[in-house]
Amino acid sequence: MTIAIIDYGSGNLRSVSKSVEKSVNDLNLKKKILVTNKPEVIKKSDRIILPGVGSFSDCMQGLKKISGLLEALHSSVCEQKKPFFGICVGMQLMSETSFENGEHKGFSWIPSEVIPIENKNQKLKIPHMGWNELKILQPDHYLLKNVLDNAHAYFVHSYFVAVKEDKYKLLEVEYGSQLTAAVVVENKFGTQFHPEKSQATGRSIINNFLTWRP
Question: What is the Cα–Cα distance from 152 to 36, expressed in whole angstroms?
């Protein structure tokens, strides 16, 4: 059993892989963790994690530069229905369109758009950076087991995923308005915050993903 963490030149690969490794050990799972950009490895993996740091367009270009990577992602996630976890920009890429630095197409896995956080009356610091409280919207969902309402998670972002239907939201965060903090549809899951930096809350999220059977 393998967990593929996709390396495409973006993301906190070391901290993500270390966090996943700790969860694998704590849960006593027999899973191998592979940091990879090889489509053939991704196709053979059982779970896929896509970190992302930086701009939407840069991350998408990084994926496109690796021959066969987008096709391997689509095949594994959309056709074979393997559990997928997108982190930060990795979650934003699941959207249809991003309006960061122009208009850019995403994976179209969730009906949504990536739009800027509205800085009302110049009172907010942008990017939204640091710890903030989570609001649970689907308390019975397996991915939120052992996650407390009002638990804190670590964010760094200027844009957020505006979903077209609330049923796709798992978590929200208040920052000037209610922003999407986590999404889920079928076998596809994403968090705007960084679970690898979110201490006990992040550990619970990663544990749940590793044992999730969508």
Answer: 30
Q: Check if the beta carbon of residue 16 is closer than 8 Å to that of residue 59.
A: no
How many structural domains does the chain have? 1
- 125-136: average pLDDT: 93
Higher pLDDT, 75 or 12: 75
Q: Which residues are catalytic?
A: 88, 194, 196
DSSP 121: G
pLDDT, greater one: 209 or 126: 209
Give the pLDDT confidence of 153-188 residue by residue, as tens digits.
999 999 999 999 999 999 999 998 999 999 999 999
CB neighbours of 144 closer than 8 A, spacing ≥ 6? 136, 138, 170, 171, 205, 208
Residue 185 structural domain: 2-211
In this prediction the pTM is: 0.95
Query: What does the alpha-carbon distance between residue 132 and residue 69 come to, in Å, rounded to a whole number?
Result: 34
What's the CATH number where 12 sits?
A: 3.40.50.880
